[in-house]
User: What shape does this take?
Amino acid sequence: MDTVKILEPCIQALGSKDSQQRNEATKRLATLMKEHHLFPISLIKMNGLKPLIRLLGSKEAASGEKAYAALTLGLIAKNNVKHQEAIGAPGLTALVKLLKEGKAVERSQATFALAQLLQGQPRYQVALVKLGALPLLVQQLSGETEGDFGSAAFALAMLAQNIEAHQTAIRLEGAVEVLASRLHGESSGDRIDAAFALAHLATGHAKNQEAIFEAEVVEGLMLLLNSSFLAERMNAMLAITRIADDYEPAQTAFGEVGAIASLVKALQCNTARQAALIALHSVAKSHAENQQAIVQSGALETLVRQLRTGMRAERRHAALILSTMVESNEEVVQMVDQLGGTIPLRREQSLL
Assistant: This one.
């Protein structure tokens, strides 16, 4: 496949004075970026990023052109650090300006592109806040274009990652309440994105954990935890893990509504097992009632089996759960020993 030959007419058309040609070119490029991983690579090598970025700020460009140009940049940046770096500060700045000044469809695609650029890019996280994009992204949670919520939720999750000041600022802008309400949304995608964003806002941030809990998320997350869709269950477990971590009110609330039983059930699913183990540890750590609920559920046998025969990560997380349970409960110590778990537990504890 000659990607250069296919891309060349589109890249040339980006500089055309004919708006229709530019629109068709940006639309075609957005389509091609999805078709094969070689197209983004070739476009970058052909210096196709510059005319795309320039188009974002062009006064002559129509709304559709700018939207497709932003979408193309987002698709190029998606899950690729090298491509994100190639787009760089000029692309970031142009996209933020489009987010500030563009029409609804332009803002929507700018949000998508920014979300992709932020993945694993601490420099971009800081730059985006300095450019004033954070409150705009929170506003996009209530955007009028389909996909606005999902893109904004993902962007805010990436913006919050590992930066406490950003987590705080996002909460203070009112994002928690909007995200919490979408746990009950009609769209499965929105429910998943809401849980994912709430998890990142809660991570290691006590005030955010409290604010999220007080936004009455327990019922919504339990609906996701018991969903028939794996992605909903996985993101519910992620959110429960981060919200309940060392936060007793959330641990108690999740225990009272049956989260232990649902998480124990999730241990039977190969794909969900590790997430369920992590969530169980978060909910049960230093919480006697929830630990007792794990015992009463009959999960000790499953935990010991994971301790003995599970994959490395599963053994580690099973050991974390059992370690916190045997510390203050002689009955659990005896049960674990009867199940043949004492020696494997000691072995894993030495590796923790």
About this structure: The mean pLDDT is 95. The chain has 24 helices and no strands. The CA atoms of residues 24 and 271 lie 42 Å apart.
